[in-house]
Amino acid sequence: MEIVIRALCAFVFLWLITRAVGRSTLGELSAFELLLFVTMGDLIQGGVTQQDFSFTGAVLAVGTFALLTVAFSYANWRWRPVRPVVHGVPVVVVADGEPKIDAMRGERLSMDDLMAACRENGIERFSDIRLAVLETDGRISFFTHDPAKSGADQGAQIS
């Protein structure tokens, strides 16, 4: 039972960390950030199972994480008021060609990252953008005055 409680606490802690880190970091990881997250995973594993290297301990820890992941997913699907807390909300970062500096600052989205996402979508000028939305998964959806270029691009992630 101790492993389940430790896994529950570690899950909540990791969820809080990923919410605090922000969506712009989750879109694409640098090599250092990837190593940092792998190291964090190793540290969490030690904190959850401690010296228990048994198969039962591993099943309890992984099972608790999986169950909590399903519970978060179900709550996100079932109760609309829970979604902003669990999953976050999309944020408008450009409207009518004007970057929303306060929104970008709140999401720690730099102008360079926004311009890179524009270039990846073939957008040359901010004035071409009707609306740009930073999605909860770190991607940016662009809606331009040209309907052929509008919508989310699967490759447009920010670092």
From TrEMBL:
Gene3D superfamilies (UniProt xref): bsu07140 like domains
Source superkingdom: Bacteria
InterPro entries: DUF421, UPF0702_alpha/beta_dom_sf
Lineage of origin: Bacteria, Bacillati, Actinomycetota, Actinomycetes, Sporichthyales
Segments crossing the lipid bilayer: 53-75
Membrane topology category: Multi-pass membrane protein
One Pfam family hit: DUF421
Keywords: Cell membrane, Membrane, Transmembrane, Transmembrane helix
Domain YetF C-terminal as annotated: residue spans: 78-146
Annotated source species: Sporichthya brevicatena
Keyword Transmembrane found: yes
UniProt-recorded name of the protein: YetF C-terminal domain-containing protein
Family assignment from sequence similarity: Belongs to the UPF0702 family.
Location in the cell: Cell membrane
